[in-house]
């Protein structure tokens, strides 16, 4: 048993013995299915504290012949699966945490040599008779071992992308590292499985991956591995029952990541709220909001407008495919937003190709980040939202028009009124407080003979009217109300039996004033 070659199972044992442990052992069966196949190269990227290292420790404990782990898996889901006994502690494992070799920038020029040296040292203890020092380094040594002893290896590499996060501008180090990985794995007969985890997907040059042998499972394309990283809604609900925590509040604060159609929660936040019985920001507390602010302050056309729209619980269309999977190559706002998805600050709906702020915990970080120079007026605008919502319920159209006008003036430097999309952003920000009473707003909801611009549906058991908002540009608020009626925008609400308010808002560009009209709507029975 070594540190890097055929290590023990102490790390996974600690996870199993912890107060909160959620069984993700079915991942083992999924990895068993690709052993010694063309699909044996797997790279999983998730935000920090999403369970990547725990999964790597679990796979190490299961495969490594340097330990005995049958007791650790007793009663786990994997134990009843056909492949369990076939591979339990029967494989050579090389386990690397790249961060252990890169905890200081001074290590950037030596860490690859250091990795090869420590692994070679441990290989010599078990296989020294089969190899000599090789000019090709570790790949050459592993080839000799395979050639002479027919021994293969499972590689488990955690924090694989540490180089790209620590050495953001050192393209020479990044390229050298990618070449090392390519030489170690591509076309190598000694490889049974390569399982890598990190925050970023594998670096791209142009449209292609720098190491094209890997199947990647990321925050933008999680495929069938979504449930193994992060907690599912069912798992969180069960934890809440076991620990006497209000699931509805946990859901409001920590739900929102949508991976392959599954609602996924950040494990760090859920575990901490189960242990401490307090709803608050836990995951974001491990890193300051400056990390977020650095990116949303970038001067890309439409970026600040997108952030404001998402602060109002809206969603933004995004093209994630052009992102180069590093932390420096940004050409458009979509590149920045895609990075924030991989970092966990935004969520992504694969079916709609839209991004959004996932939950209250992350929203707090955005609110902290915009309460700074460069975002003048946004915080004030959001703070006015509560009064504007109350004025809407009170049918006080004059107060609503004036409130929207103030918010427009406070954010004019970021939201130039050149189209109706910008007006939509202002409305979403004006109704920011609606999140306490309403589900996320529906934008351009297909209904009747056309599209309602913004629709707010009340949450279950909340006694508030639904809001159907129609926006106009250099026309009239009355015309907006009439359009809602004539085009039957409320037909989507046939099963809804509560009250509905029709809200028509018009912006007169020349006079720079807003008009509003609010009417109660009666559903014909």
Question: Main traits of this protein?
Answer:
Trna Endonuclease, Chain: A, domain 1, alpha/beta, five-stranded mixed sheet
Q: Average pLDDT value?
A: 89
Contiguous low-pLDDT stretches (5 residues minimum) are: 446-450
CATH topology heading of the largest domain = Rossmann fold
- Rough outline: elongated
Please tell me the CATH architecture of the largest domain by its name: 3-Layer(aba) Sandwich
Let me know the largest β-sheet.
Answer: 5 strands, parallel
- The helix fraction, in percent, is 25-40%
Domain unit count: 3
**Secondary-structure-derived class:** alpha/beta
Strand content: 15-25%
Count of alpha/pi helices? 19
Structure description:
The structure is a single chain. Helix 1 crosses helix 3 (52-63) and helix 5 (111-127) runs parallel beside helix 6. The protein is elongated, with a radius of gyration of 27 Å. It folds into 3 domains: 10-217, Rossmann fold (3-Layer(aba) Sandwich); 231-285, no CATH class; 378-521, Trna Endonuclease, Chain: A, domain 1. The chain is 38% helix and 17% strand. It has helices spanning 10-16, 26-32, 52-63, 84-87, 111-127, 138-149, 162-166, 171-185, 233-243, 247-254, 267-276, 290-296, 303-311, 333-343, 360-370, 378-393, 397-410, 420-430, 477-486, and strands spanning 41-45, 93-97, 153-158, 191-198, 204-205, 208-209, 215-217, 231-232, 257-259, 262-265, 316-317, 347-349, 354-356, 442-447, 450-456, 466-473, 500-508, 513-521. It is α/β, with parallel strands linked by helices. The strands form 5 sheets. The chain has a 5-stranded parallel sheet with strand order 2-3-4-1-7, with helices on one face. Strands 14-15-16-17-18 form a 5-stranded mixed sheet, sandwiched between helices.
């Amino acid at each position: 048993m070594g540190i890097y070659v055929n290590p023990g199972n102490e790390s996974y044992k600690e996870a199993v013995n912890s107060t909160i442990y959620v069984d993700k052992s079915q991942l083992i069966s999924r990895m068993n299915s690709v052993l010694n196949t063309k699909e044996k190269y797997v790279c999983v990227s998730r935000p920090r504290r999403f369970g990547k290292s725990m999964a790597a420790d679990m796979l190490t404990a299961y495969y490594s012949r340097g330990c005995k782990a049958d007791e650790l898996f007793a009663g786990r889901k994997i134990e009843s699966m056909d492949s369990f006994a076939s591979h339990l502690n029967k494989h050579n494992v090389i386990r690397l945490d790249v961060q252990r070799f890169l905890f200081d920038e001074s290590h950037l020029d030596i860490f690859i040599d250091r990795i090869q040296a420590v692994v070679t040292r441990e290989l010599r203890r078990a296989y020294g008779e089969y190899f000599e020092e090789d000019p090709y380094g570790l790949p050459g040594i592993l080839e000799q071992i395979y050639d002479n002893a027919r021994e293969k290896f499972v590689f488990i590499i955690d924090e694989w992308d540490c180089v790209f996060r620590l050495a953001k501008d050192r393209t020479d180090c990044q390229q050298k590292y990618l070449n090392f990985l390519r030489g170690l794995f591509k076309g190598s007969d000694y490889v049974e499985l390569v399982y890598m985890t990190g925050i970023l997907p594998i670096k791209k040059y142009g449209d292609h991956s720098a190491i094209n042998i890997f199947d990647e499972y990321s925050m933008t394309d999680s495929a069938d591995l979504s449930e193994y990283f992060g907690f599912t809604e069912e798992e969180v609900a069960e934890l809440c029952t076991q620990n006497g925590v209000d699931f509805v509040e946990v859901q409001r604060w920590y739900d929102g990541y949508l991976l392959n159609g599954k609602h996924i929660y950040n494990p760090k936040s859920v575990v901490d709220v189960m242990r401490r019985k307090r709803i608050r920001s836990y995951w974001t507390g491990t890193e300051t909001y400056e990390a977020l602010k650095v990116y949303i302050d970038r001067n890309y056309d439409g970026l600040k407008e997108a952030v404001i729209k998402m602060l109002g619980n809206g969603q933004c269309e995004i093209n994630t495919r052009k992102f180069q999977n590093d932390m420096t190559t940004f050409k458009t706002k979509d590149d920045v937003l895609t990075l924030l998805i991989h970092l966990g600050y935004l969520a992504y709906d694969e079916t709609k190709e839209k991004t959004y702020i996932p939950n209250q915990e992350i929203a707090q970080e955005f609110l902290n980040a915009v309460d700074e120079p460069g975002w003048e007026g946004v915080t004030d605008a959001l703070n006015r939202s509560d009064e504007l919502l109350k004025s809407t319920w009170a049918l006080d159209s004059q107060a609503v028009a004036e409130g929207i006008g103030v918010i427009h003036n406070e954010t004019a430097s970021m939201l130039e009124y050149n189209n109706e999309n910008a007006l939509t952003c202002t409305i979403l920000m004006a109704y920011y407080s609606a999140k306490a009473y309403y589900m996320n707003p529906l934008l351009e909801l297909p209904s009747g003979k056309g599209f309602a611009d913004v629709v707010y549906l009340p949450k279950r058991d909340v006694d508030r009217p639904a809001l159907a908002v129609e926006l106009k540009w250099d026309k009239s608020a009355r015309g907006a109300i009439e359009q809602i009626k004539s085009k039957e925008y409320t037909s989507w609400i046939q099963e809804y039996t509560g009250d509905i308010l029709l809200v028509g808002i018009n912006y007169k560009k020349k006079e720079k004033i807003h008009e509003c009209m609010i009417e109660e709507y009666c559903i014909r029975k």
